Amino acid sequence: MCVGITRKALVVGYFDLLNSFWTIQPHEKFYDSWSIFYNVIFILFMLTLLNFALKRLHPKAGFNQGELLTIYVMLCLATSVGGKDTIQALLPIMTPPILFRHA
After folding, report:
1. How far is 40 from 63, CA to CA, in rounded Å?
2. Measured by CB atoms within 10 angstroms of the end CB, which terminus of the chain is less buried, N or C?
3. Rounded to two decimals, what is the model's pTM?
């Protein structure tokens, strides 16, 4: 049984609207070209601060290490797939099988 994949971690991982909004903004810098996605690090840092407050109020309400790791992986995958470099390469690769299937 995986300790990090809980319902709480999946709900927070799927709620990555801030991450998606952050990566699609038209800037000169592309977040998916860097080795460490600093938008994901920032969101994880904010979740860690929230985690400290939650554990202080109610010890079982906070996230454990596995849950934070699950959220990190989900946000990194959403950033890498939704980024500019991946989409530019993915669409030309996906269309020829559809366009030339009857050739």
Report:
1. 17
2. N
3. 0.67
